[in-house]
Amino acid sequence: MIKKEFSTNKKYELIDITDAVKKAAKGKRGVVSVFTPHSTAAILITENEPNLKKDWVNFLQSQVEERSFLHDRIDNNAGSHILSGLIGQEKTFPVDGDILTGTWQQIFLVELDGPRTVRKVNIKIIDNRG
Ligand code: ZN
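That is the input. Now the predicted structure with zinc ion docked in place:
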């Protein structure tokens, strides 16, 4: 398993981690699991286009801001947990020498409660060559 760490600079941020996943998958065959061991971050597939990334941030923020959540009495980040759960903390991709994603499918670590010094991503190849 390959363990990567990323630092984030904003409350909400999309960080393209496609290259790290492609590097891990190079020459392999099977599937690759991309997992972030955090409950206020997520793994998302979308197009790496600057305005679309802003649209994602604006959309995600609009879903949780100005709401009242019970968990906010503890550490004021219920919205971050909810968005993380909805987007998902893991995605799996087919691999045949490279990840078999479409042209407009890039892989992102989504920061939902930043900034954070360390956000971990675990990349695990499950090889089926036997
Ligand atoms: Zn919390």
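The beta strands are 2-6, 13-16, 29-35, 41-46, 90-96, 106-111, 119-127.
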